[in-house]
Structure to design on (319 residues):
């Protein structure tokens, strides 16, 4: 199955405070229940605290992002103890050490680790628009643009949470294919397994990725690089009930010659009920999987869409 990855082989970077390490400025932590108790049962974390790594003590004075003349620095509120360069350097160092990671969870609002909407201040201490990006996080994301990244606050949203985990497993699958030695056939096979996954996010992207694989004028390395960049960008687009329902309807077509009239009607009703927001996604999916057992379809059975990650995570129960 697509998600059959050993826990020790699926590594995710994470801000140390999110898994209970007491490394925050006040010697506290900020444990994420989802990361520790749910996702943590299926992955191995590699934790980082850039502020401690660059030599700041525990506890320590707070630091913040300060903007002056369109330049953002990180220092104590009074402007002393500038650690901008140190955080950038450590971010670049870690970025080169994390090629084996399949995802990263950052601590929200942190001047070093926040992925977005970090508070920014003027030199006088006035609040500016909260549009900062953590200095350390920015270096990680810049060096690894296809790496699935999220922050703990956003993971409280069930749709964002499901999207992140699905991207992590898809990226890990790609890494495994890449490690086995890439070929045009392997990339094409991978693409076929993600047909319905990408359709549920962006049908146009699926077609463009197919056109990329059909090109004969590009070196394999360029095709692979453009493919994974395009795939991960497409998967970042949130799937909607309408897109999922259309994907399910496409899958239903595989059983059109086998289902009895009442069975066809039941599946249509399940898909429509899901589209209308009356039932969660796992309901019509369960019925499709049931028919797949009765009427095996090899192409459909290999689709990542049916089992993108361990069922125990129950991520499709919420929408």
């Amino acid at each position: 199955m697509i998600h059959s990855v050993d826990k020790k082989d699926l590594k995710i970077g994470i801000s140390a405070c999110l898994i209970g390490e007491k490394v925050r400025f006040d010697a506290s932590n900020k444990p994420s229940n989802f990361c520790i108790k749910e996702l943590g049962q299926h992955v191995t974390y590699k934790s980082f605290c850039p502020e401690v790594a660059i030599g700041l003590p525990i506890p320590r004075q707070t630091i913040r992002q300060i903007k002056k003349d369109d330049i953002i620095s990180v220092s104590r509120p009074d402007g002393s103890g500038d650690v901008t360069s140190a955080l950038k350097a450590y971010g670049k160092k870690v970025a080169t050490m994390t090629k084996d990671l399949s995802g990263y969870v950052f601590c929200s609002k942190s001047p070093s680790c926040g992925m977005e909407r970090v508070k920014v201040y003027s030199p006088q201490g006035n609040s500016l628009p909260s549009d900062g990006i953590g200095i350390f996080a920015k270096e990680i994301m810049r060096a690894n643009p296809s790496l699935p990244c999220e922050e703990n606050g956003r993971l409280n949203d069930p749709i964002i949470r499901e999207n992140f985990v699905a991207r992590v497993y898809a990226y890990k699958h790609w890494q495994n294919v890449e490690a086995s030695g890439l070929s045009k056939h392997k990339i094409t096979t991978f693409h076929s397994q993600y047909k319905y996954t990408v359709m549920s996010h962006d049908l146009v992207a699926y077609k463009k990725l197919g056109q990329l694989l059909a090109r004969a004028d590009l070196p394999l390395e360029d095709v692979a690089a453009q493919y994974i960049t395009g795939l991960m960008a497409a998967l970042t687009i949130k799937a909607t009930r309408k897109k999922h329902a259309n994907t399910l309807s496409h899958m239903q077509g595989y059983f059109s010659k086998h289902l009895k009239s009442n069975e066809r009607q039941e599946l249509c009703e399940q898909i429509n009920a899901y589209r209308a927001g009356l039932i969660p996604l796992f309901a019509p999916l369960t019925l499709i999987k049931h028919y797949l057992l009765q009427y095996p379809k090899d192409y459909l059975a290999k689709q990542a869409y049916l089992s993108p990650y361990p069922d125990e995570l129950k991520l499709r129960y919420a929408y």
Observations:
- The mean pLDDT is 95.
- Residues 173-319 form one domain.
